[in-house]
Specification:
Protein name: CUB and sushi domain-containing protein 1-like
Keywords: Calcium, Disulfide bond, Glycoprotein, Membrane, Metal-binding, Repeat, Signal, Sushi, Transmembrane, Transmembrane helix
Pfam families: F5_F8_type_C_2, Lectin_C, Sushi
Number of domains: 11
Shape: flat
InterPro entries: C-type_lectin-like (IPR001304), C-type_lectin-like/link_sf (IPR016186), C-type_lectin_CS (IPR018378), CTDL_fold (IPR016187), FTP1 (IPR006585), Galactose-bd-like_sf (IPR008979), Sushi/SCR/CCP_sf (IPR035976), Sushi_SCR_CCP_dom (IPR000436)
GO molecular function: metal ion binding
Number of helices: 7
Structural class: mainly beta
Amino acid sequence: MMTTMSWILAAATLCSALLHQTQGADCPQPATPLNAEVSVGGLTAGSLATYTCDPGYSLFGSDSVVCDANGKWTGKLPICATNVAYRKPVNQSSTARGGAGENANDGDLSTVHDGTRCTQTFVETSPWWAVDLLQQYEVSVVKVTARGCCGHEPLQDLEVRVGDSVHYHQNRLCAWLPGVIEDGTTRELQCARPMLGRYVMVQMVGVSGSMSLCEVQVYSTQEVSKERCSPDIALENLATFNRTCYHFQMQEGGTQEIAKKKCAAKNSTLVQHIQAITQDFLASELRRHEDTMTTKLLWVGVEKDEGHISRTWRWTDGTKVLKPLWGKEQPNNYIRDQNCVMMDGAREWLWNDVVCSLNYLHWICQFGPPSCGSPDKSENTTVAVKIETHAAAATDVAAAADAGAANAPASSGEVAVYSCPKGNMVLGDRKRTCGQTGLWEGEAPTCKYIDCKEPGSVENGKFVLLDSRTTYDARVLYECQENYTLGGSKDTITCGDQGTWDPPSPQCLFSWCDMLEAPRHGGLEVTGRRAGDIATFLCDPGYTMIGTKTVSCQLGGGWSGEPPTCRFVDCGIPDDIQHGEMTLVNGTTYLGSVSAYECDADYWLDGPMTRSCLKDGRWTGDRPYCILINCEQPEIPHDGYVIGYSFDVGSEVEYHCEDGHFLTGENIRVCTRDAIWSGSSPNCTYVDCGRVPTMIKGFVTYETEGAATYLDSTLSFECVPNHRLAGESVKTCMRDGKWTGGVTRCEEIRCRNPEVPDLARISVARNNRRLSSSIFRGKEDMLPDQTYRVSSSVTYRCDKGYVVEGSNLMTCLSNGTWSATAPSCKYVDCGHPDPIKPGIFRLLSNKTSYGSTVAYECAPNWRVEGKYRRFCQENGTWSGPTPKCIQILCSKLPTGNVAGLEVKEGTRTVGSNATYSCKEGYTLRGDPTRPCLQHGVWGGKVPSCRAVVCPEPRDIINGRRLKLNESTSFGTIVEYLCFPKYNLHGAFQLSCTQTGAWSHLPPKCTLDDTDYGLVGDNTVDGSSNSARGSDAGELDGSSNTGMYAGIVVSLLLVVAVALGLAFFRTRQRKLASADKGAAVKPSEDTNRINGAVTYGGLNDPTTGNNIYENIHDDLEPDPNYSELSTPPSRIRNSGSNTYNNSNGSNNVYNNGSNNGSNYSNGNNSDRLSGHTYSNGGGSVRDSRPGSGMGGYPPNQRPRMPPPQPPTVPAGVTINGMSIIGQ
């Protein structure tokens, strides 16, 4: 049957259930990850819990969770982790374009690769990158930053592996990211669960390409962030590894002792207990700090045991170094006492032993993290932190947890205390301690809901639910009815962790009195609990009873009176006394305790020696005092006085007499503990020593004030210059009335005979003119007891062949000593003279002593510059500077006024030759070479150059020779022309060559028997250079007829000819004057090569038929007359030259007789520019290769055009006479 209380409990439960159905269930306290804090907005549906990470940690996952209607927190718990890959050793499959593996964990998040910011591999299959974390970590997340745009392979199909194998591909798969990472972005690759391992690899799997990573960050919750180490140290000077903080002190230097003190001042130690992996880490960090270090040397917390033969090294905490990390050839104890150790950058940061007093080394401080950060907790739990700085005093900060700061960072000595909601029991570590490694020990506990259900009912009694619940830790109170007594040890039971009530439910018994409890700080003696039994109460020592000491059990189960209480009687610690000591005799201060008093030495106790603690809590009597012992004022003697102003025990007074008195008796008296002065008072007696006699060559000064001469007065003696005291310089008046010391006098200061070394002589110059001497005297001339006055001087000179070594002058000083030590005479030896190159020296006497001579000679073809002989001087040096050897060169050769002469001098050294040559057009006469002779002069004579001149060229039959000028020198050109109906065989042009011969033999003119029909009326016979266009048969058949006709016509037309000639010449001059220089112009493409000129073409229509039209063009070159070389200029431009083959005057030349510069052969009156040859209205130009005038074969005329119809000329020439047609 249910009790009333059961009905109430059931009703409350039902109401609570209905309320949750209408409003939704509340969520429990949210879980919190390690190194994070949570801000809870509420526990009802829709409430938000927000997470933030501790400084130095990054959050991965959602930063908040939401309470849903079912009382559950939605979302996955985030992770707060720190990067453990920063600047750790790396490796990669290959390196290209400056993309070193270290660029991916240098902390630079830039995505622009300039050869120093990102990694890059060659194009290969499945390229990879890996980092060595130096120890195992639980890796949670790997962040990968891709390179920015553009021009590289994108990151794709990435695979992350974590493990302990150096064969990275064999480690377990952490994460896989198919697809492509966009350029310049960062992706988080989270492991399915935290994976334990030392090596982390990132690989492009199955991809053939180049991999470029700008940054890779590996995150773990098992490392301490730099921000947690110390808020007072700049982060760039901090590093963490293996949950230890390292402070790199690079801004100052000092000895090892200073380094230890500096570290201790910051609750740290000089770096110690360094293992191999820690050494690798520190070395990588030091390489990062190298630019900020003034020296690459740092102290290590290692010292050697004392003793010269000790080889034991210990960390600064005293433990032995088992595996030292020495550098190459260390330790060497090079300069002894090298009892300390430093990290040496020159030895790859390994150890080097040094003396401990070096005062410029940097150091590293090492310390554990002062905080473990925010502890993690499971869902439905709360955590509070107790700061246990020592066992006796702990501060509970549970209030901070209730205020939302439950995960506040812990500090050194902190304890995280977990609790569960009411009705729940803590499963796991209720307390977690912050360890030395900076991690929380143990694991976060969970909560278990426990319900003990309703306890059983008790007969003749009832129970009360004190906490209105039956869950874990709930309490139930039992009460019995009247006249019944509760049987059992306790009237309250509690719901335990096993779901049962503890202790079991009690019983209600009739006529039993309640169980009495002994008073606090007291005891209880009970004879029984039935009616009539007696209970006696007792109090502990120091306590007094308040109430009835004895009670009895009455019917109905009640005691006759209330239990008494024991009140503690504590008189407290009695007041201390100054200059004394209070002692608790029995070590307590409660009732009956006794305190005793005793004064320090030299003090008297004034008051009771002991006091007792009374019932009223007071000590008996008054507090005593300690009074310092003192003496009366001491007696003062006549003519004396006392120094000392304290007369307390142990004080001293010092007796003194007035000036001129001395003390008889003890001068110091002491105040004893008997309050009297030790000894007796002394006496003072007067003393006067009087004045001393006058001093010769000196004077006396009485130093005491007033020139007094009484006891302890002083006087001093001084001598005039150059005199010194013999005796004491200061005297004091003594008790016997005399001055101290014997007689004092002044003596003249003099120097003894100076030392005269062997082979030396001296000259003495005294300050007394009568005794002064400048004669040099030897040792044998010195007087044995001779002395010298102050300022006298001695000059030393050595015998010939010796030199003074040392000072050659000494002066007698005012202290009676010479200013320097006597020199010695050193044999003069100039030593071997300096050599000369290339040359030798000869010692003419085979000696190098004083007076010796050295002669210098140079190698052949070299000469001595300077003096070729030097002498050893008295001062031990060779006279003059060392000569030099200068190479002999011949002078530069002038060419003088020798025309065409050139010279190449060569090196101008002896034996070399100068080579002469002549310019083109000259031949050398004389020796072409001249040698440079031994004395720097040229041998032989200067040659000369003679101009090249060819012999006069021969004339040819049936043709004419054309020569540009009267000269036949080098380069002169001669041309040959054949008469009409004659063909030219051979070169039509000859030039004078360098050898003085013409380039070819003269050509030949042969008769052409080809009939071309009537060509023209211009006829030329063999004697008059006239020609006509007739064949050979006609010429032979009509020669007589023509002759007769000519005679007749000549006679008839004499007058007409004369008139015609006059008219023609006048007209010709007018035309020439009007058109001078414009008849034939050089073509626009005229080229000037080697002085040649190109003229108008052969077929120029303005000139009529070509004079060469009848010349056969199938000539073969004659090999006997072919040109050896093309002359530099075949035709020289010498103005306008016209060739006229008619009678003329003034500048007109007939039949090649060159008396001027204008030539005409027919009626062509045009003035031709350059060398244009006209013969019957034709013009010719040299167009052969090499002539600069065309491209025809050498030694051949240009090919003639086909025969043209006959043309009637405007005039004819007969026997050299031109007849103008009408």
